[in-house]
Design brief:
Layout lengths: L4 E11 L5 E11 L3 E5 L6 H8 L7 E6 L8 E4 L11 H11 L4 H14 L15 H13 L5 E5 L7 H18 L2 E5 L3 H7 L2 E6 L4 E7 L8 H4 L2 H19 L2
Parallel strand pairs: 3-7, 3-8, 5-6, 6-7
Antiparallel strand pairs: 1-2, 1-4, 8-9
Helix pairs in contact: 2-3, 2-4, 3-4, 6-8
Length: 252
């Protein structure tokens, strides 16, 4: 992580047309190369924050500053579901963003293969989604984000539907790729242990209205391993964040 900003949310408010106040006076700064995870009760606006950063929705008032050129494919979004094309092989699913950008497969073949290799799917290039496990499908989704060579990656509960063993493996693999690529990652999860294991900072939100109530710095070195997961330090951070979440729930 460096001291240069990647994203800044300044007094952001989001009110939907039905009157629901999703966010109120949301302030958050994320630095380049940082891994930040957002946790909070259901309905607190975690996914809304990601959508606003990605410009998939407009703020009602306030401002979000992104210090990258979003017109140059420097931001990628990994959703809860892999949303793969069932009729296409892995290699074609990963190639899709470049195809939509008008880049020929011949030009991008090396980049596509590198993305596939980075997520550990080499050898599965010509498999169809129906032939893949849930974890492998999510790897394809991450490779599809990788292929655009982004600087910022937004991840909305990407491992929520997976079993714990698969989830733990993908957590470790994600950290390995993050360190190689020096991404700025904004990750959303309901899982406190996942948040602590992955992150440099964990942002705790309360809802009604959605807002930041805690910003917990995780002072643990990388790479992280199973030893960190089982450590007293990890448990202490999990307890701290759990206490913050209890405050978040009682706050509304």
């Amino acid at each position: 992580m460096n001291n240069q900003r990647a994203i800044s949310c300044h007094h952001v408010n989001k009110v939907y047309t039905n009157g629901t106040v999703a966010l109120q006076d949301m302030n958050l700064t994320i630095h380049q190369g940082e891994f930040v995870t957002i946790v909070g009760p259901s309905g607190c606006g975690k996914s809304t924050v990601l959508r606003l950063i990605a410009q998939l929705s407009d703020v009602t008032c306030g401002k979000i500053e992104s210090y990258i050129n979003q017109n140059e494919n420097e931001l990628a979004f990994v959703f809860q579901e892999p949303t793969l094309m069932p009729w296409s092989q892995v290699i074609d699913n990963v190639y899709l963003p470049l195809k939509l950008a008008g880049i020929s497969f011949r030009e991008s073949r090396t980049i596509v293969q590198e993305a596939i290799n980075l997520v550990g799917l080499d050898g599965s290039e010509h498999s169809y989604p129906r032939q893949l496990s849930g974890g492998m499908k999510m790897r394809v989704s991450i490779a599809r984000a990788l292929v655009t060579q982004p600087r910022i990656v937004l991840m909305d509960e990407p491992f929520g539907a997976l079993d714990e063993m698969t989830r733990s493996k993908l957590n470790s693999d994600l950290l390995e790729v993050w360190q190689k690529r020096n991404w700025t990652v904004v990750f959303v999860t309901h899982n406190i242990y996942e948040a602590v294991y992955l992150s440099q900072r964990v942002i705790v939100m309360a809802s009604r209205p959605g807002r930041v109530i805690a910003d917990v710095k995780i002072n643990a070195t990388y790479p992280r391993s199973e030893n960190f997961r089982m450590s007293q330090l990890c448990n202490d951070y999990c307890r701290e964040i759990s206490n913050c979440l209890e405050m978040a729930v009682s706050d509304y």
